[in-house]
Design brief:
heterodimer; A: mainly alpha; B: mainly alpha
């Protein structure tokens, strides 16, 4: 019962306190305007190059929007503690770490999904892309799966906040890398073989592929394997993240790194 | 004034060169954006088109560095409590904030080098400058024009507490409207006049025409025309917004 209380209280409180983008003056420019402009930019670039359709770029960049929200959110959920100098207090608390970090992951997954939906609706309206009701259900599932995977990667990034300050740097570089490696803006077959192999283990790749297949007429059953792979990758990242926070917490206690700013 | 300005640019560049975030962003993002453009445009089709795309990406990074870096710099000044000191300094505000913008724009030249090297080494894009004299003038003209456009944005950032967020949101719209990676003919016709008043349009044209051949000098001239206009507008805006921020006592609010 106490774990359940920690799960919800910790998740909601940390999200409200640490996620600086909740402020509408920050939320709208970064999580609404930026993704929509990104969708338009790459769609027009695609039109100019005569490569792929607007739907291709719309879907790819909607997933990237979810990734930005989930990864930065999760990174900030840990990294922000150092900035506000509350990390030592948090590390001294006797709560179950798995429950605490899981609770912090949930709001970022929901946020990533929410941001992606806004970007999709606005982007589809501007570009004139139509998606049917049946396809929408599968798209929602793909988005949730990818948001979960990105939150897992975000936990890995956030764990670095237990050792250093520049969580945002890693999140920025990785979110940029996902624009190309995940196939969001370049068809995967155009990329070198090594990058294609690497793409299969990064977040978004399978979620985007599933969403594009659905938009092309595939059923939910047809893409179930891809969605399962995406969730599986997310579970692996989450596990790695939990191991990293455990190791870095131990190291931080030993070296007294929690108080450094 | 000149000493303040030169010292300001030097300090801004020193800060940027010691910032892991800015160094890595300027290393990674040009590579990512240029790679997407190269793969979509297909490297084997037209080397000249790819060279133009590389230059466009470089100008994109200049604008990003100015608008995001400048917003971030002002946010940091606010957080560290030094914005008040900048405003209270016995020189005009433009002399203390202007160098932040010009320094950020100049740092964007690093992005140009990264983009061209990446294009050359990985995609084999031939880097040949048609008119070196025009190119040597076009590059600083572009930096100054983009920096001064950033100065207008910065004047509102003095008032706006979430400058960094606004800076991030202003990247893609300007990249789109200025036609840095795709022609403006793809966009609705009403976008054209907007692009004419934006520095990256003329800066990009000046650099591209100097490198690939064309009437670079007229675009360089337009860079200077818009720069003078930006300076005049930013002086008015800075005075107005500074007074407003003083009246609201909002410099300390982080």
């Amino acid at each position: 019962m106490n774990d359940l209380r920690v799960f919800f209280t910790c998740g909601v409180t940390s999200f409200r306190a640490l996620f600086g983008w909740v402020n509408p003056y920050v939320f709208v420019p970064i999580l609404v305007a930026y993704p929509i402009a990104q969708i338009l930019f790459f769609s027009y670039l695609g039109r100019s190059a005569g490569v792929e359709s607007d739907a291709f770029f719309l879907i790819g960049n909607v997933f990237c929007a979810a990734a930005v929200a989930s990864m930065f959110g999760m990174g900030q959920a840990i990294g922000g503690e150092r900035r506000f100098q509350t990390l030592p207090v948090l590390m001294a608390s006797p709560v179950n770490r798995l429950v605490m970090y899981s609770g912090r992951a949930v709001p970022t997954v929901v946020l990533g999904f929410f941001v992606a939906v806004i970007a999709f609706v606005c982007g589809a309206a501007i570009l004139g892309v139509h998606v049917g009701q049946t396809e929408s259900v599968a798209l929602v599932l793909a988005l949730l799966a990818s948001s979960f995977t990105c939150a897992g990667l975000g936990l890995c990034i956030g764990s670095l906040g237990l050792r250093g300050r520049s969580v945002g740097l890693f999140a920025d570089v990785l979110s940029g890398g996902l624009l190309i490696i995940s196939g969001a803006n370049v068809p995967l077959e155009k990329l070198p073989d090594a990058v294609q192999s690497f793409a299969s283990i990064v977040p978004l790749t399978h979620g985007i592929e599933a969403a594009r297949n659905v938009a092309a007429g595939a059923s939910l059953g047809d893409v179930a394997g891809l969605l399962g792979t995406e969730v599986g990758i997310g579970a692996v990242y989450l596990t790695i993240g939990l191991v990293l926070v455990t190791v870095f917490e131990r190291e931080g206690r030993r070296t007294g790194a929690f108080d450094r700013f | 004034m000149i000493r303040v300005f030169v010292t300001g640019v030097r300090l801004q560049l020193l800060q940027l060169m010691r910032s892991g975030f800015d160094i890595s962003a300027m290393l990674v993002w040009p590579i990512i954006l240029a790679s997407i453009a190269f793969y979509l445009l297909d490297a084997k089709e037209s080397p000249r088109l790819l060279f133009a795309a590389a230059l466009g990406t470089a100008v994109m990074m200049m604008w990003a560095q100015v608008i995001v870096g400048a917003g971030g710099s002002l946010d940091n000044q606010r957080i560290f409590g030094t914005l008040e000191l900048l405003v209270a300094a016995p020189v005009p505000l433009v002399a203390t904030i202007g160098p932040i913008m010009i320094g950020a724009g100049a740092f964007g030249v690093y992005g140009l080098v990264v983009t061209l090297l990446w294009g050359r080494l990985l995609f084999g894009i031939p880097i040949t400058i048609d008119n070196w004299a025009a190119f040597a003038v076009a590059l600083p003209s572009c930096v100054i024009a983009i920096g001064l456009l950033g100065l207008i944005a910065a004047s509102t950032f003095v008032l706006y507490r979430s400058a960094f967020a606004l800076g991030i949101a202003m990247q893609y719209p300007v990249w789109i409207v200025c036609g840095l990676l795709f022609p403006l003919s793809l966009l609705p016709s009403w976008v054209g006049p907007i692009s004419w008043v934006l520095a990256p349009t003329w800066g990009f044209r000046a650099i591209r025409e100097a490198a690939l051949g064309g009437s670079a000098w007229s675009s360089i001239g337009m860079c200077w025309v818009v720069s003078i206009a930006y300076l005049a507008i930013s002086l008015v805006c800075l005075t107005y917004f500074e007074r407003l921020a003083r009246a609201r006592a909002s410099f300390r609010l982080a």
